[in-house]
Design brief:
Elements: H1 8-13, E1 19-22, H2 29-38, E2 42-45, H3 53-66, E3 70-72, H4 80-90, E4 97-106, H5 114-121, H6 127-143, E5 146-154, E6 165-172, E7 177-184, H7 190-193, E8 198-203, E9 206-211, E10 217-221, H8 225-230, E11 233-235, H9 247-265, H10 274-293, E12 297-298
Parallel strand pairs: 1-2, 2-3, 4-7
Antiparallel strand pairs: 4-8, 5-6, 5-12, 6-7, 8-9, 9-10, 10-11
Helix pairs in contact: 2-3, 3-10, 6-10
């Protein structure tokens, strides 16, 4: 029996696999996922779902018609600190949320020699597409549907033709105002930029600050006696050491895969569906439309 393939289509048609993880570049997601669906193969697809909504809809239709599970790799949702923050928001621990800011700085394609920077950047759609997809997903997951978006992009490395920094303002149907700020920067010291990787939520009776890559979050509430005595409290859900960078992040990838495999084995809906991923893609694409047209884009 053949166990090595040079063509992914042969693999999908072989009947040897029940599920695959699609990690090809975003521009190839649609054709691979649709082919997998045609052959009854379940899919865990890397984020973002597709380059545009037309491709995304083809993927969703193919998955639905074939009855396969389609999940998307937004692993940050599985971090215990973000789960706890979502719980606190839903339980009104900080009152009504009025403002949220998500920020993420990463090296992106700038962790290579100068001569390779432009070539590496060409493989990506842009900073907001690359990093912002995660933050868009977290914001919608925590705060619900967005209504309006307005965005500003820039490139601080001349030879790079896509955005390497972006600022996006969002109004949500709940009335909450949000902001996503992302950038690629060649800063390699983890401790130097750890405070630039977090979600901050301000409510009418308190504040939450959650580490983007885990494992901790900080909490203050005017209703909490502990907070009145100690001030802002740092909490670390789960058995993670805050002094070990990316320990919780590595765990979140495993949890993402486990959730997908469980959805296949038990015939249940995965925690992160293709429809969820379409919503975050819709927000990101609206931000690019906003910048190109120099206008606020309605998502209602």
């Amino acid at each position: 029996m053949k166990h090595a393939f040079e063509d992914y289509q042969e693999l999908l048609r072989s009947g040897l696999v029940q599920a695959v993880s699609v990690c090809v570049p975003t521009k190839l997601h649609s054709q691979v996922v649709v082919e997998a669906a045609k052959n009854g193969v379940h899919v865990l697809c890397e984020k973002p779902l597709a380059l545009d909504l037309e491709e995304a809809d083809k993927m969703l239709k193919a998955a639905s018609s074939a009855g396969i599970k389609l999940s998307v790799g937004y692993n940050l949702r599985f971090l215990p600190n973000h789960l706890k923050v979502k719980e606190y928001i839903e339980n009104s621990r900080i009152g009504k949320p009025i403002f949220a800011k998500a920020q993420l700085i990463a090296t992106g394609p700038y962790g290579v020699p100068d001569a390779q920077i432009a070539r590496e950047a060409e493989k990506r759609v842009g900073c907001l597409f690359d990093l912002g997809a995660h933050l868009a997903d977290l914001m919608i997951w925590m705060f619900g549907k967005p209504s309006y978006v307005s965005a500003y992009f820039s490139a601080h490395v001349p030879e790079v033709k896509v955005d390497d920094s972006a600022l996006t303002s969002i109004c949500f149907e709940s009335g909450l105002m949000g902001e996503i700020s992302v950038a690629w920067a060649p800063i390699f010291n983890y401790s130097a930029i750890e405070t630039s990787r977090q979600i901050q939520v301000t409510g009418t009776r308190g504040i939450l600050e959650s580490d983007i890559f885990g494992p901790s979050f900080q909490f203050y509430s005017t209703d909490s006696l502990s907070c009145k005595i100690k001030g802002k409290i740092k909490l670390t859900p789960g058995k993670f050491d805050p002094k070990i960078p990316f320990q919780a992040l590595s765990w979140s990838y495993k949890r993402e895969i486990d959730d997908f495999l469980e959805s296949v084995a038990r015939n249940k809906t995965p925690s992160i569906t293709g429809e969820d991923a379409r919503e975050s893609l819709r927000l990101i694409l609206a931000a690019y439309d906003s910048y190109r047209n120099k206008s606020t884009v309605s998502l209602s």
